[in-house]
C-alpha cells in the first residue's frame, strides 16, 4: 500500500504529500484515508479530462460504444475484430481505420462511439463531417496556406470524418 501511495502522489504531482504521510508520527488511519482520497481525486480528474476531450472533439452525438448495435452492413477489415475496435488496438498499432457501408448504416455512429472511447482513454480526437473539414481547410488557406490546417490536424490522435 505504501508504494501505491508513493506512485499515486508522483502521478498527481503531489511532491510532498507522501513525505508528510510517511513521517514517524502519522497514523495508519491517516495513510489509508489519504490513499482513498487521492484515488478518488485521480478518478475524478480522469473523468473531467475525458469530458473536456469529448466536448472539444465536436461530436454530433454522445452514444458510447457499449450502446452501439453491431451489424454486417458496415465493412471493417477482415483482419480486425470488433473487440480490437472497442479496445482501440488499432490506435496502439498506429493503424488507420476506414469504415465502409451504404448511407444510413451507422458508420458515423460507430466512428463517434470509437472517438468517445478514445477520449475516455485520454486521446485527443476531432470529429468533422467531410464538408465541414473542406470548409475549415478553405478558411485557413488564405491566412497562411493549407499547411496550418495540416499541422493542427497532425497533432490529433484521431480525426474522424
TrEMBL record:
CDD domains: AAA. Residues 19-149 form the IstB-like ATP-binding domain. Coiled coil: none annotated. It comes from the Bacteria. This is ATP-binding protein. Keywords: ATP-binding, Nucleotide-binding. InterPro entries: IstB_ATP-bd (IPR002611), P-loop_NTPase (IPR027417). Pfam families: IstB_IS21 (PF01695). It comes from Marinilactibacillus psychrotolerans. SUPFAM superfamilies: P-loop containing nucleoside triphosphate hydrolases.
Amino acid at each position: 500500500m505504501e508504494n501505491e501511495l508513493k506512485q499515486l502522489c508522483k502521478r498527481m504531482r503531489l511532491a510532498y504529500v507522501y513525505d508528510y504521510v510517511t513521517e514517524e508520527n502519522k497514523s495508519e488511519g491517516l495513510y489509508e484515508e489519504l490513499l482513498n482520497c487521492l484515488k478518488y481525486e485521480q478518478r475524478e480528474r480522469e473523468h473531467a479530462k475525458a469530458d473536456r476531450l469529448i466536448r472539444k472533439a465536436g461530436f454530433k452525438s454522445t452514444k458510447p460504444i457499449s450502446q452501439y448495435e453491431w451489424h454486417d452492413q458496415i465493412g471493417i477489415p477482415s483482419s480486425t475484430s470488433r473487440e480490437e475496435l472497442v479496445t482501440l488496438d488499432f490506435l496502439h498499432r498506429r493503424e488507420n481505420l476506414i469504415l465502409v457501408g451504404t448511407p444510413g448504416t451507422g458508420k458515423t455512429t460507430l466512428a463517434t462511439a470509437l472517438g468517445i472511447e478514445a477520449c475516455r482513454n485520454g486521446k485527443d480526437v476531432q470529429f468533422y463531417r467531410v464538408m465541414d473539414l473542406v470548409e475549415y481547410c478553405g478558411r485557413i488557406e488564405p491566412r497562411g496556406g493549407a499547411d496550418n490546417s495540416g499541422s493542427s490536424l497532425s497533432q490529433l490522435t484521431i480525426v474522424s470524418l
